[in-house]
Specification:
The structure is a single chain. The chain has 5 helices and 17 strands. By secondary structure, it is of the alpha+beta class. The protein has a single domain, classed as Cyclophilin (Beta Barrel).
């Protein structure tokens, strides 16, 4: 990926003078003080812990990993399993599956590992004339940065304020942000989220380059890059890669590249080679109870239960499927 998430120009934008209307707005916010806290106080009964919530879940709270929308990334050090989200980026997910079908990714490489940011893979020769040809899939697509709010989209909203969007929550197992006034929703750049690299033009991405967030949530990228899913297993194989020493964490020496052995769709694999996982559905009362448990920490270690939580601090549980 280039521009803000790849080599690109690497230019740091100059800081402009703050217009006077913004000064007035900032002063008003400071005078008003912080936003009202969520509904909870020290006098309220303590919520259960996350462990207790999960222990009390029922089978219908969980959904099996959809093998038709799961890709398996095989690296020399292990396997990374990614659950794709066709509900949020249908064209890009379809194109990634087409790239998998034509074996486009096999033999490519992890070319970037940037501290506290992303790991990225793609064609290491993409900057030259030897770029690997895309035969059956699309070489570029219109962006899918956001989508409309519709009745088929169940969103578990957080009560907590967010710096990047009017409202945040979870839909289809992913962290999302939304603007009720405009009727738009978009996935958020939390840890483990998978995005599509692009050049300067918004429509230049295809899925030929993919990246995974391995550090602090870069929410400033929301609605600037198409997000297509999240890692559900194998994050340790990405987060522990040696950091690149070049600009933006790119590996300067091709010998540092980590080979992408293969990427396969779950339905291509024998049953014994699939990840048999269940994901906690985010449109359930159990998941809403989990949010409360993580907002108000009642475990004995905690001195201050906090009473607040950020979007990217809510875990998205998975577990081995029952035999």
């Amino acid at each position: 990926m280039r521009h803000s998430l790849s080599r690109g120009s690497g230019a740091v934008p100059q800081t402009a003078a703050v217009p006077s209307p913004w000064v007035a707005t900032l002063l008003a916010l400071l005078i008003a003080g912080p936003a009202a806290p969520p509904v909870w106080s020290q006098e309220s009964p303590p919520p259960p812990t996350m462990g207790t919530v999960l222990e009390g879940s029922v089978p219908s709270d969980w959904r099996a990993l959809d093998q038709a929308n799961t890709i398996y990334v095989t690296l020399p050090m292990g396997r990374v399993v990614i659950a794709l989200a066709p509900e949020l980026a249908p064209r890009h997910v379809a194109n990634i599956k087409a790239l998998v079908a034509e074996r486009f990714y096999d033999g490519l490489a992890v070319t970037r590992s940037q501290e506290n940011y992303v790991v990225q893979w793609g064609d290491p020769t993409a900057a030259g004339e030897e770029r690997r040809a895309i035969v059956k899939a699309r070489a570029s697509l219109p962006p899918e940065f956001d989508r409309g709010l519709t009745d088929d989209l169940a969103v578990a909203l957080l009560e907590d304020p967010d710096s990047y969007a009017p409202k945040v929550g979870f839909a289809h197992g992913l962290p999302v942000a939304l603007d009720p006034a405009s009727g738009r929703l978009w996935p958020a750049h939390c840890y483990g989220m998978v995005g599509v690299g692009r050049d300067l033009a918004p429509e230049s991405g295809s899925g030929a380059e993919l990246y995974v967030v391995i550090g602090h949530s870069p929410r400033h990228l929301d609605r600037n890059v198409t997000l297509v899913g999240r890692v559900v297993e194998g994050m340790e194989h990405l987060s522990t890669l040696p950091r690149g020493t070049g600009s933006l964490g790119f590996y300067e020496d091709p010998s540092e590249h980590v080979p992408v052995v293969s990427i396969r769709l779950g339905t291509e694999l024998p049953d014994a080679e699939r990840a048999h996982l269940e994901l906690l559905s985010t449109d359930t009362a159990t998941f809403r109870a989990l949010i409360v448990a993580r907002r108000v920490r009642t475990e004995s270690w905690f001195v201050e239960p906090t009473g607040r939580i950020g979007l990217c601090n809510v875990p998205l549980p998975s577990r081995p499927a029952a035999p």
